[in-house]
């Protein structure tokens, strides 16, 4: 039956779109989460068009073959990894910009386009698309949509959900749905566009997106680097900036464990905690002054600049965290979010849990929105029992603080076993019924999100 | 069986919560849409608590009795009107503010609280909740959520969906679900919070809302009134302001037919078209200057002021539209939205359709976001065949321009017959399956939205 299906697929697609090359199959089993699927997928399909995606979902449905949609493969939760008996459906080649409409401040794109490439193209129209995950240079717009990606700027400029007007989606069986609209407002029927955003490939395949753009922000940004002797005070200073209604575009906090890893990597003299603030728009200087004053009042040693080179140097401290950690061991990047006022508590909790389990937990936070990335660093190739035990405690404590398991990376396979705990039994069952409304046979990305 | 159900309900609720008084039953059959339900509901329940709502949905489910949730009753699409065989469930008495957390910039409220009352209470915390429908003085937060209400400010500050973090919802059977979260970011499971927003009482009952607040906007606003000789030019001037990336907080456009109705009502010398612009925040004056220059370049006669009394006078021209129209006849307020660049076309189309059908269509637009309110004014008590024929053409033309049937009022009963046309058959069927996932027996607000 599977052979029949692959034969039908090969017939329906252009030559070369379907491959069973071992290298491609193997690549499809992994992403950047460190998770690898069991077994090799049946085939990889490189969709070139909406019709290709429709053919895959028509034939897969007819033969009850699971389909795992894949973009750039940069996911951090294993949401797009494909294993035995599954088809890996890549939309990476569907990367055209179909329309840029500066008057209506929207763009229509295919899902495979890389976030940074889109923004480069939008620049000449004086526009940008706000979602800016740290992976923007390598992650696709479709992947950003699948995980409701956030990033550094989203306390001020919103997450992916606030930046999408409509989606074209192919559902199991191959039907093409046009969800949402091109207008700013609209309340015709249920908001299936929002439902798709963050659904991690479990409902259908996004084949087109109408994106809400913003005019480029004018003026020169001001950047602040602030050194603190301890991370709790630094976290409190950041929360105080938000509470005082100062609105920087970026506010990042690197904790003590992270700084010591970084000091080792760069040779720089770093300890305590480091806060990076960037203010933009007409009131950049005024905002930066207010933020700097607040950071100083909490004991921070502040450098403030509108020199772009110096600013890049300060931002580099934050950016080097990932390579620094990877130089020491394997890294499991976690992604919890708490109400902003509980951020200092969450830092302390992670330190305590790390110390008790003998696990290195380096913490970096998007301090403007309470999203922390506790990063577990360990010498083994895969997370050990101690790492998972520590992670489980981090999740439980985060939920107890009124937080959530994942701010922007998604559930994937990595957190599927904790989903029910956060949602509660009744909502978990309801979410599964919604899944069935789209995908009655359960062929879309099985095992992800719900486990 | 119905008698049994009412008896059970009376037992489960506090004395006086269930009423069958004729006046109350009759009031529950109508809202501000002009639509009246057939027959009288079985009873009105004034819920005082989450437990009351749970009791109603438990007993209604057991007896398969339809439930129509009602807030302040100010809906413009007939979404909350209850008729024969139905229970009208009022949450108007559930109006407490449970928490205001300025540090985390959120509030937790019950659904019955009036939008303006909430904002008055938030003011002392230096915060506000952005959704500002024209009905804000009389409409409830729960109703704003049920219709994804917009308003005058939403081109700059977003619609209701962007201002809600989480919802507590009672579903058929009486189970209480906690959807969403208290954090800025989060992607744990499908976004059921967004799905509830704009669902018009067809999925469950919102009994609590965690709202995302904003700090009060600093500074004195600048206001502009601009007179144009024709509305097409005025609409083009407004679109040019958006395209030039000037970001006023408010931009309203009153068309020619509306102005002549207004001139008759007030005795003022008004014709052509009127544009109201308001700019706020630190850059209010700069933004107002840029907007005024653009309006002048399109031939507008501009008055610009930061005097609050004079500003109120200019705003009054827009505000008096509704009483002015009501002084002439019955008013059916429509609510289409088009991409901003097509606004001028939509004005022309409405005029042409009105002239051809001999129907007065006064147009007022939220010009910052392309949301028009073509208001049909007629001497009869109910819309005539000619009015519906004209309305149907307006809807069809709006969809042809890439627009949507309803920007912010909802589908209710008024537009239910056009929903399938906008969504397409496949999406329409999918939306019904999603409805069934929440409400398998179809007891939540039947006949609304889907017709």
Automatic annotation (TrEMBL), chains A, B:
UniProt entry tagged with the keyword Transport: no
PANTHER family, alphabetically? GLYCOLATE OXIDASE SUBUNIT GLCD
Naturally occurring in which organism (per UniProt): Agrococcus casei LMG 22410
What's a Gene Ontology MF term here? Answer: oxidoreductase activity
Q: Please list the residue ranges annotated as the FAD-binding PCMH-type domain.
A: 37-216
- What's in the keyword line of the UniProt record? FAD, Flavoprotein, Oxidoreductase
Q: What SUPFAM superfamilies does the record tag this protein with?
A: FAD-binding/transporter-associated domain-like, FAD-linked oxidases, C-terminal domain
Q: Which cofactor does it need?
A: FAD
Protein name per Swiss-Prot or TrEMBL: Oxidoreductase subunit
Q: Which InterPro entries match?
A: FAD-bd_oxidored_4_C, FAD-bd_PCMH, FAD-bd_PCMH-like_sf, FAD-bd_PCMH_sub2, FAD-linked_Oxase-like_C, FAD-linked_OxidoTrans_Type4, Oxid_FAD_bind_N, Vanillyl_alc_oxidase_C-sub2
Q: Name one Pfam family in it.
A: FAD-oxidase_C
